[in-house]
């Protein structure tokens, strides 16, 4: 397989904090992922999740940069993926400082997956205009790209004005940016200004996540074909990573043969990365299942 794989750090598992949401848990799972052959570990971003959303299938999350910093401190090679970071939740310079800090301290291992976001009550709790989220993401990407050059950045934003911000130290190289989401707007943003696109398997969750339905490989293929068409229209020639959150397409209910066939189809469609979230009643079981997955589909 030439597809790369990222393993979820299950920091949303707050029903079993000692097993999954401690420094030791992050270290153990990240180390196991690195040793098993996974190419990255990832976390998500929900600083102010809404109680109603949590009670209907939502989930908690640690701060993504703090969680990934703990993973970085105990590993040496594995990439660190935000899947995904909602840039609009934060002032762009505060976001850039977190991104710079993790990129520097990890030796350049950060991959910045980011998206416009969809959880309206979370935007409201954070005092951010939900309807302006796309423009705020663009603004954050503008600031990040410019401030990581090392030059002094003057920038007039929607709610701030900087006369000459300077960041030091500069990361070894700017982290690649992958834009998440299934909508045409997300695809256009990814193709026009990022190094990757991160669609996800909605499996009936499209309405809640305010994005386009992608619940089959055929639907994903159509979306990738559209992305390639758009890239040709705007003259993009650089390769585009495609990181797919496959969800139930690769869960343990499928046989190894079925999952091999699914991965092969996804690779043929153009997918370059897959995110994996093995089940496990405790940390040991989750690590065992992660190793078994790696043995079967990554190193085997």
Sum this structure up briefly:
This protein is α/β, with parallel strands linked by helices and 300 residues long.
What are the SSEs and their pairings?
Blueprint: E1 4-8, H1 17-20, H2 23-36, E2 40-43, H3 51-55, H4 64-73, E3 79-86, H5 92-105, E4 110-115, H6 120-125, H7 133-147, E5 153-156, E6 161-165, E7 177-180, H8 184-193, E8 196-198, H9 206-209, H10 217-234, E9 241-245, H11 256-269, E10 273-276, H12 283-297
Parallel strand pairs: 1-2, 1-10, 2-3, 3-4, 4-7, 7-8, 8-9, 9-10
Antiparallel strand pairs: 5-6
Helix pairs in contact: 2-4, 2-12, 4-5, 5-7, 8-10, 10-11
GO molecular function: alkanesulfonate monooxygenase activity
Keywords: Flavoprotein, FMN, Monooxygenase, Oxidoreductase
InterPro entries: Lucif-like_OxRdtase_Rv2161c, Luciferase-like_dom, Luciferase-like_sf, SsuD_RutA_monooxygenase
Mean pLDDT: 95
Q: Please mark out the parts with pLDDT under 50 across 5 or more consecutive residues, or reply none.
A: none
DSSP helical segment count: 12
Radius of gyration (CA) equals: 19 Å
Shape: globular
Structural class per helix/strand content?
alpha/beta
Quaternary structure classification = single chain
Distance between the termini: 9 Å
How much of the polypeptide forms β-strand, as a percent range?
15-25%
Would you report the number of β strands?
10
Give me the strand/helix succession. EHHEHHEHEHHEEEHEHHEHEH
Strand order of the largest sheet: 1-2-3-4-7-8-9-10
Largest sheet: 8 strands, parallel, barrel
Helix content: 40-55%
Protein name: LLM class F420-dependent oxidoreductase
Organism: Mycobacterium simiae
Domain Luciferase-like: 21-211
GO molecular function: alkanesulfonate monooxygenase activity
């Amino acid at each position: 397989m030439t597809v790369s794989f990222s393993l979820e750090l299950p920091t949303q598992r707050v029903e079993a904090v000692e097993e999954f949401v401690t420094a030791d848990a992050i270290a153990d799972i990240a180390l196991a992922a690195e040793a098993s052959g996974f190419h990255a570990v990832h976390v998500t971003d929900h600083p102010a999740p809404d109680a109603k959303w949590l009670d209907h299938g939502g989930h908690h999350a640690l701060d993504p940069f703090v969680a990934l910093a703990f993973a970085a401190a105990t590993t040496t090679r594995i990439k660190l993926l935000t899947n995904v970071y909602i840039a609009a939740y934060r002032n762009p310079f505060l976001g850039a400082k977190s991104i710079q800090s993790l990129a520097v301290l990890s030796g350049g291992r950060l991959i910045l997956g980011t998206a416009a976001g969809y959880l309206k009550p979370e935007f409201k709790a954070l005092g951010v205009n939900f309807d302006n989220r796309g423009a705020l993401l663009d603004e954050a990407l503008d600031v990040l790209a410019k401030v990581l050059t090392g030059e002094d950045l003057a920038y007039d934003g929607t709610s701030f004005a900087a006369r000459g911000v300077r960041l030091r130290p500069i990361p070894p190289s700017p982290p690649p940016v992958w834009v998440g989401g299934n909508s045409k707007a997300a695809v256009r943003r990814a193709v026009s200004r990022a190094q990757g696109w991160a669609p996800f398997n909605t499996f009936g969750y499209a309405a809640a996540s305010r994005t386009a339905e992608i619940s089959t490989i055929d639907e994903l293929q159509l979306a990738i074909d559209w992305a390639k068409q758009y890239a040709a229209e705007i003259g993009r020639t650089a390769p585009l990573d495609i990181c797919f959150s496959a969800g139930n397409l690769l869960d343990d209910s499928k046989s190894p043969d079925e999952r091999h066939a699914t991965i092969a189809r996804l690779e043929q469609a153009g997918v370059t990365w897959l995110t994996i979230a093995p089940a496990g009643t405790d940390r040991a079981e989750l690590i065992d299942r992660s190793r078994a997955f790696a043995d079967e589909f990554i190193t085997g």
